[in-house]
Amino acid sequence: MASIKEIDRYFQFAKELTLEAGKIMSSAYGRKKNVETKSSEWDLVTEYDRRVEDMLIRRLRQEFPEHNVRDIGSAALSLAYVAAGAIDVFQMDYLKPWDVAAGVLMVREAGGVVIDSRGGECNIMRPRTLAAANEKLARETAKLIVETDLKVQRKRLQRT
After folding, report:
1. How far is CA 7 from CA 1, 2, 17, 50, 110, in A?
2. Binding site for Mg(2+): residue ranges?
3. Which of 59, 66, 67, 122 is the most buried (most CB within 10 A)?
4. Is the pTM of this model over 0.85?
């Protein structure tokens, strides 16, 4: 398990990446976008989405070459990996109940924690899902998400 110092480093780096991704997405505002499909007709992506994904993977591999960076592409499979102990934390908002129902059960049965990504109780009917190996990791990740969201909102207010 990582030390507190290492976890703080990871969180700070995650904040940097989140803000950098936000800048890329903000640059798309008001511009024409090329919309493509990924794996199915409802899985849409723009060139800005791809730029964010490429930046995240590149920066994560540079910062943590000893870690395996992966995007599984499935909330259910990601939650199963948390339950199995293969990954420590998974977070994704704007899912549907059928995306997470079985996975939430698996994580909880395995002794993991599933909460709302803002730190509240998980609502399976309106999933903003954060699953983690333990309570502390879940709470610290939710705190990071809330702090970063507030920082972004403050910056937006300063511009107006």
Report:
1. 10, 6, 15, 27, 23
2. 99
3. 122
4. no
- Spatial distance between the Cα atoms of 82 and 136, rounded to a whole number of angstroms: 15
Task: Write out the residue limits of the CATH 3.40.190.80 domain(s) in the chain.
Answer: 74-160
pLDDT tens, position by position, 85-144: 888 899 888 888 988 899 999 999 999 999 999 999 999 898 888 888 899 999 998 998
Q: Does domain 74-160 have CATH number 3.40.50.300?
A: no
pLDDT bucket at 71, cuts 50 / 70 / 90: low
Q: Which residues are annotated as a binding site?
A: 99
Q: Where, residue-wise, is CATH 3.30.540.10 in the chain? A: 1-69
